[in-house]
Task: inverse folding
């Protein structure tokens, strides 16, 4: 249940996706990539839930499994009271009208052979909604909604800036009036100034259209302005989950501390940006094929002790609504440097 007692719009329980590594003459699986290894999350109607972590931790795979763009191995995905993983193709297609996705790289997600008008109209054409004239009108309204003009209708993606392409992707996602938009790294390929514009647009669209967002990001600084709740993901698992304000003020997991340390803070002198803390993430992300025993983060954690190397921590609620999987959690008071 969500914080106000209402049923969540999106509920995910025990989501698992392992990819086989095949070898030999018969191409039998010789190992498995544990991309998503038991994920739980909830998203309230009109809310914004952010899933954050380094590249390769399983965030995008989680998003695609929720929409069944990739079929999960097991788990429960319940959207608006409907269990998605048990649906047939026709029923799933009907549900997808209310669940849309904005992809990280608009350059590759927009067909380079199609003009903007056709790209935005494509969902309306696929679902055969309205007349040809009403679709044209709807496309024009959508472009205005995302801050673009009608003069772009006849252009191709390569004739647009990065920010314009991302706005076209958002217009396409809004075409079917969805309740949920999954945004996979929607601003990571954009300049910092353009990032701020797109994030502000997302907030305005959420208020105007009552959208809920599942926001995928690797940078906690990006989600700070828009997220209501945040889950931090590491090597296929959620290691911390909390309301956004509390996670930024008092994170409990050492990995979350390290991610927050990487968020630039403006320098009051105007000369440069400074880092929030001296903490850094040592080493490389371990292999998802053979994750370390015990706590997967122990190979990089400055607080790791013997117990961390042999016993995997459970995700436990240490404060109301604040969950962490760590044997030795530590608070970080806002405004400190370590």
Result:
């Amino acid at each position: 249940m969500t914080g106000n007692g209402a049923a969540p719009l999106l509920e995910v329980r025990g989501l698992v996706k392992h990819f086989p590594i095949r070898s030999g003459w018969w191409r039998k699986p010789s190992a498995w990539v544990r991309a998503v290894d038991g994920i739980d999350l909830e998203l309230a109607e009109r809310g914004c839930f952010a899933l954050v972590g380094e590249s390769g931790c399983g965030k995008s795979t989680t998003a695609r499994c929720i929409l069944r763009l990739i079929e999960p191995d097991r788990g429960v995905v319940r959207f608006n009271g409907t269990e998605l993983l048990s649906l047939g193709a026709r029923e799933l297609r009907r549900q997808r009208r209310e669940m849309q996705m904005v992809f990280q790289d608009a350059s590759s997600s927009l067909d380079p052979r199609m003009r903007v008008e056709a790209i935005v109209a494509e969902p309306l054409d696929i679902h055969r909604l309205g007349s040809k004239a009403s679709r044209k009108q709807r496309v024009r309204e959508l472009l205005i909604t995302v801050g673009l003009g009608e003069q772009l209708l006849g252009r191709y993606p390569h004739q647009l800036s990065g920010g314009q392409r991302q706005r076209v992707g958002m217009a396409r996602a809004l075409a079917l009036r969805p309740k949920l938009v999954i945004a996979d790294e929607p601003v990571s390929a954009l300049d910092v100034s353009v990032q701020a514009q797109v994030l502000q647009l997302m907030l305005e669209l959420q208020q105007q259209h009552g959208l809920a967002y599942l926001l995928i990001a690797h940078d906690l600084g990006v989600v700070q302005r828009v997220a209501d709740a945040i889950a931090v993901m590491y090597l296929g698992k959620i290691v911390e989950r909390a309301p956004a304000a509390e996670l930024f003020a008092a994170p409990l997991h050492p990995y979350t501390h390290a991610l927050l340390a990487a968020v630039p803070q403006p320098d009051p002198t105007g000369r440069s940006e400074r880092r929030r803390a001296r903490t850094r993430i040592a080493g490389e992300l371990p292999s998802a094929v053979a994750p370390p025993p015990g706590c997967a983060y122990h190979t990089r954690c400055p607080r790791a002790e013997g117990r961390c190397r042999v016993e995997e921590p459970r995700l436990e609620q240490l404060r109301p609504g604040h969950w962490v999987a760590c044997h030795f959690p530590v608070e970080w008071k806002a405004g400190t440097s370590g």
About this structure: Confidence is low (pLDDT under 50) at residues 268-278, 334-338.
